[in-house]
């Protein structure tokens, strides 16, 4: 396991797409360890309505990967695709182009990733409520991020993805989900190649910090 300080873990957990090792099996015990840690995250009213699908079956991974690829192709052709953002900023557009390329790379290989983790929420009524969506998804997103941090600390790479949700109903049929369970994300999980993870360039804090109001 990498020896990382808390700050190193938090600042070097990257979206891993091109460097996921598709050939090396992932020990199911490692995934279980990461999920045990994820269950310590907070949830609204401590309801803990999360559920976790762990896909290792080759056929199910292939089917979910096909849905992801179809959705990703539409995304890459859209005005909001990573490669089309910040086109007037030469330095930043280069970064965006690399992100775009890595997204396309993963889209063609999602079904080959050794483990696909899908965090879900079981809703009391079966329907997403109107209005405060943040309150709903805030009851699973911290746990999903905890899973990704735990994976990083154990030498596993992950990426937060949601593009397959354009075909959420089709994915639910593949997964045999009950009607009251909704998917939150798709997290590919694999050993990674290389050891060069480092903090990414971000917009300076002072450009996004607002104190006591906007």
Automatic annotation (TrEMBL):
Keyword annotations: Oxidoreductase
Superkingdom, taxonomy of origin: Bacteria
Sequence ranges assigned to domain Nitroreductase in this UniProt record: 12-183
Membrane-spanning residues: none
InterPro entries membership: Nitroreductase, Nitroreductase-like
CDD domains per record: Nitro_FMN_reductase
Family per similarity comment: Belongs to the nitroreductase family.
Protein's name in the database: Nitroreductase family protein
Species whose genome carries this gene: Streptomyces ovatisporus
């Amino acid at each position: 396991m990498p020896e990382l300080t808390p700050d190193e873990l938090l600042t070097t957990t990257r979206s891993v797409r091109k460097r996921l090792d598709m050939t090396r099996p992932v020990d199911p015990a490692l995934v279980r360890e990461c999920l045990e840690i994820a269950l310590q995250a907070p949830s609204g009213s401590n309801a803990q309505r999360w559920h976790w699908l762990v896909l290792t079956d080759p056929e199910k991974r292939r089917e979910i990967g096909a849905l992801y690829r179809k959705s990703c192709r539409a995304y890459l052709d859209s005005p909001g695709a990573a490669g089309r953002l910040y086109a007037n900023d030469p330095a930043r557009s280069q970064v965006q182009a690399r992100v775009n390329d890595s997204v396309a790379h993963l889209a063609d290989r999602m079904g080959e990733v050794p483990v696909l983790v899908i965090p879900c929420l079981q809703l009391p009524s079966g329907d997403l409520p109107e209005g405060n969506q943040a309150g709903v998804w805030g009851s699973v997103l911290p746990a999903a991020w905890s899973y990704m941090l735990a994976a990083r600390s154990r030498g596993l790479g992950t990426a937060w993805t949601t593009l397959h949700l354009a075909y959420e109903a089709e994915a639910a049929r593949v997964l045999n989900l009950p009607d009251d369970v909704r998917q939150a994300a798709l997290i590919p999980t694999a050993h990674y190649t290389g050891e060069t993870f480092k903090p990414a360039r971000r917009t300076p804090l002072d450009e996004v910090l607002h104190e006591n109001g906007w």
